[in-house]
Every structure is written in structure tokens, then in C-alpha cells.
Design brief:
The protein is of the alpha+beta class and about 200 residues long. The protein has one domain. Helix content is about 40%, strand content about 15%. It has 5 helices and 3 strands. Helix 3 packs across helix 5. The longest helix has about 45 residues. It starts with a helix and ends in a 9-residue tail after the last strand.
Length: about 200
């Protein structure tokens, strides 16, 4: 005959008691809704903030690209009117001129790549060399030929803009090293200025 004490600690009774206790605790916590908002925010908040910051960063990149476009057009005016030809303008001088047309916080000449090429007619633009090599990397050397009177000039400027989303390489301008290449091109015919150029 088993003692009453031994039957109180039988395995089926203990298991039943454990199940009832777990059910009571589970019911108590399943009715408690105080932490739901924090958990939902933790799940949704981080991706939402990443999307918002990505949108802000893309908008800023478009804004900077428009500033660079304007600076290139303003700087190209010196070439178009012949002032650059008078003063033996160099690629560094062109970068300096771009910097004068940009806000000072954007001006870093090391981040600019300038390629200026001259053509005799507009059909020659079809054979324009790429700024990139066969691997898709920027070339090491670039042209700087501002031409003479009535020359057709293509001024291409690449600006290395720091961007975190460029690491994802969603765009062809993304380098994968937290930089996006912002392009600006100005195509124009030099004015018929009277002085000769070297």
C-alpha cells in the first residue's frame, strides 16, 4: 500500500499541477497589453527610420547634383567667352572656378574629376570617349582641351559625393565605397572671339 505522502508527489499529479500553473501564468501575460507598442515599434521602427534617412540622403544627393550642374554651367561660361583661352586656363583653374560657384562646404577639389574635350562638329560627339574603363572604373587620365574660337566643347565633371546608401550599389554611380558619382555635362560652342589660342 502506498502512503498518502507518496501519492501526493506522483508524476501525473505534478505534471498536471505544472500544466495548470503554466496556463495561469500564460493567461495572465496574454491579457497584458502594456508592452505591445514597444515591441511593434522595435519591429517596424528601425526599417522605417532607415527608409526615411535613405529618402533624405537621396534628396540631398539630387540637390547637390543640381548645385554642381549650375556651377559647371557658370564655369563653362569662361571657356565659352574666350576668357580661359586668354589666361592659359588649366584643369585646376577650372576646378577652382567650379568651387567659386559652389557653397564652400561642397568645395573639395580632390573630389572633382574634370574632362574637357573639343570637337570640330556636333557629329563628332558620337565618338566621345567614356570616362570609364572596361571594368567600369574611372580612368586615371582625362583630357583638358578648351579649344579655340567656334570650337564645340564638351565639359564633363564628376563629383564624388559621400553617401551611405551608395554601399548598396543600387545605382550605376555608386562606387561601393560610400560614394556616389554625380555627373554634370555642359555642351556648347565657343563664341567667335577675335584672339587666337595656343
Amino acid at each position: 500500500m502506498t502512503s498518502p505522502r507518496a501519492s501526493a508527489f506522483s508524476l501525473p499529479r505534478m505534471a498536471g499541477r505544472l500544466v495548470r500553473t503554466a496556463a495561469r501564468i500564460g493567461a495572465r501575460y496574454s491579457d497584458d497589453r502594456r508592452g505591445v507598442t514597444a515591441i511593434e515599434f522595435a519591429i517596424v521602427g528601425i526599417p522605417f527610420l532607415m527608409i526615411v534617412l535613405g529618402i533624405v540622403e537621396m534628396g540631398l544627393a539630387f540637390f547637390v547634383n543640381r548645385l554642381v550642374d549650375n556651377a559647371v554651367l557658370e564655369s563653362a561660361r569662361i571657356v565659352r567667352t574666350g576668357q580661359a583661352q586668354k589666361s592659359s586656363f588649366s584643369a585646376d583653374d577650372f576646378k577652382d572656378e567650379i568651387c567659386t560657384n559652389l557653397p564652400s562646404f561642397l568645395c573639395n577639389k580632390d573630389k572633382f574629376i574634370v574632362d574637357v574635350t573639343t570637337y570640330t562638329n556636333f557629329s563628332g560627339l558620337n565618338s566621345m570617349d567614356s570616362l570609364f574603363d572596361e571594368n567600369g572604373d574611372l580612368k586615371d587620365s582625362f583630357n583638358f582641351n578648351i579649344g579655340c574660337s567656334n570650337s564645340i566643347v564638351v565639359a564633363r565633371v564628376v563629383y564624388r559625393w559621400p553617401m551611405f546608401t551608395a554601399l548598396l550599389q543600387f545605382d550605376s554611380g555608386d562606387t561601393g565605397s560610400a560614394e556616389r558619382l554625380l555627373y554634370s555635362t555642359a555642351v556648347f560652342r565657343n563664341e567667335p572671339f577675335p584672339w587666337s589660342c595656343s
